[in-house]
Amino acid sequence: MLAGKQLFLRGGYLDNTLSFDEHGVLIGHSPQGSYTLSGIQIDKVRLDRHKVELEGQRFGLHFLGALPYEDPTKAVDRVNITPKKKVVKITIDRELVVKPKREKEKGKTAGAPMQAAQTTASVAPAETSEASEAQAEIAAVPLAERPAGAKSVTVTTSPAHASKVLRDALDNVFAFGFDSRMMASMPEFWKLYYEAAAAKTDYRPSDPAVLRESMVDKKARLVTQFEPPSNQYAQEHGVAGMCLYHVVIGADGKPGEIAVARPIGFGLDENAVDSIRKVAFEPAIKDGKPVPVLLDLVVEFRIYSKRTAVLTKAGDKPAAPSLPGPYSVQR
Length: 331
Known about the structure:
Elements: E1 6-9, E2 17-20, E3 39-47, E4 51-63, E5 76-80, E6 88-93, E7 96-97, H1 113-121, H2 123-140, E8 155-156, H3 159-173, E9 174-175, H4 180-185, H5 188-199, E10 211-212, E11 221-222, H6 232-236, E12 241-249, E13 255-262, H7 268-276, E14 281-282, E15 284-286, E16 289-291, E17 293-301, H8 304-313
Parallel strand pairs: 2-6, 7-8, 10-17
Antiparallel strand pairs: 1-3, 1-9, 3-4, 4-5, 4-6, 11-14, 12-13, 12-17, 15-16
């Protein structure tokens, strides 16, 4: 089911060592980023009584720029971004299967109210006893074999139930493709991109009052300069280039709806959209009044080390550029 498969890590967790409980909920904390940094290929699977241990590689998605006759969602290069001599390690705890308690011998007089009450009251201690025995079993195994959330592990007497819990946990941790849950978790600008790609059409603003640039007397104009930041993944793997975004500029000059038109991936599109939302525009004018308009905005990402090398050859001595830290989505 998992070995050799290429998956997406739901939640976009960027740490390369991750632990989840038996329901697929992250134990601890991890920075989160774009789905384009969350490709996972599972190379090794180890399954034991207490947990599933997975080892593999992390991949970043680099969009190559599709030609008019190509599917834009498939013109993508998968780049291994796992540090050298490192692997991605993911553990998922398992619900513990215990043997059911033997039923007490029958034969006592049935129907007595006091006996019925005693039988009912004995259920809770039995469940507590099973949980205690499970915790004792976990404590007895070597530390490396214990579940990450040992104190919260649930118990069951049904192997079928434990298997279902594990499959549900795997589905909460991984996406095997662009399923509905993954699509629903994406930012709006990605949803608009994939909706247009699926319909094989260009993006259309949700507000029909938004005009095209050819329909206005004076086009919208960017009045503040901006340069979206790169990130360490793109810098280390040489990902740079031009990308394109459709931006609705309101009559107030503020960016509204944004859709990816030609993405670059590697978490850079999120940086671009975040920067676009912070810049100011001079609104478009029609019949002497400001109007909302659809603007195509080109954004360029550079490799800082190469730009620094060019300046150095020219005789300048710029300060060494400080690369941004791991990218995190702003919730």
